[in-house]
């Protein structure tokens, strides 16, 4: 313990971390590794901090308070937290879960961010030290002595699976957003797999009707966007590159009664805009992003796609602006209305007889030429056909994959490798498996499992 003017300051060391992998260490005694949490060394529940605002017990208390925990009264130094927590009726065991406090008898505590079968990741602070993110392998000598369960973060529940480049490295990542807890679990792409998922938010935009990840600010990182359709209110959690900041309101009154919504760049300024579609009359409304909010909506076209089976927004022409495409399943016709940057121009016929009998249609640039192509998924046999964009139409579809996605619950096109070509990504809700078939530019390679357990039962 350290005496500060007669006040006992509860502190902890960092002597437990020799065998751990340091994922991030904030320079200059800073807070960059935990910036998404809002922690800046502010004292919580009476715990003291050093002259630079650091202490492991204070950080643990801050994270618990942020999760909604009530003050359990002082738990003492870090090495006392297990005994004090038991005395106060909290569970202390060897079971790591997200939101638990990892505790070492050598006098340190940390916050558990993610858990897998063989490892955990934590964030922590330290007296006379700095904030950091670490990975601990089970069975190693520095594994925590205990896990203290004061306000664990519930996992599971109703989840939305998303893909997008949330850390700005050019590779799309796998995101599962749990609406009942407001928890965003992110598995970053390494280019050959999805890394262990970690929590990027908690209690953010709970209960939203729609979630998206898209770069609305224009900094190259996809942000978390949430919409409440009964009020047309839209909130944005900006990405810091390692987490999502607290939400701020970006729009109100947009999207009430609409049937489809997207967050995508239709003006070509590298900021994703809010787009909605009414299937009854074919109206498309757009709220352009200002970088700090969405402007009031304006109608960009009318009568485009009323009665269509599916609607898609993507840059079909290759000019940097996403266009509005609609597909009619009974005759395989695509109609596309190119974006002028301020409206969707008159639509024209782009295909006839394509993809008939397919279960789902996806659009994305799978050959890397800058133009979004049309793909067709047949669920019974995992067959994928693709029709390349010529900038004014889709060429006749050819087979790109077979046997990928049978029995899966969701499918995506996303550039998870970072080579400019969208790949097939599929998700199995039962076991949380994510499978990827990389694009070669003329077909999809055989699928490989990139993650397991990420979003299981969500």
Automatic annotation (TrEMBL):
<dbReference type="InterPro" id="IPR028994">
    <property type="entry name" value="Integrin_alpha_N"/>
</dbReference>
<dbReference type="Pfam" id="PF13517">
    <property type="entry name" value="FG-GAP_3"/>
</dbReference>
<dbReference type="Pfam" id="PF05257">
    <property type="entry name" value="CHAP"/>
</dbReference>
<feature type="domain" description="Peptidase C51">
    <location>
        <begin position="31"/>
        <end position="149"/>
    </location>
</feature>
<protein>
    <submittedName>
        <fullName>Surface antigen</fullName>
    </submittedName>
</protein>
<dbReference type="InterPro" id="IPR013517">
    <property type="entry name" value="FG-GAP"/>
</dbReference>
<dbReference type="InterPro" id="IPR007921">
    <property type="entry name" value="CHAP_dom"/>
</dbReference>
<keyword id="KW-0732">Signal</keyword>
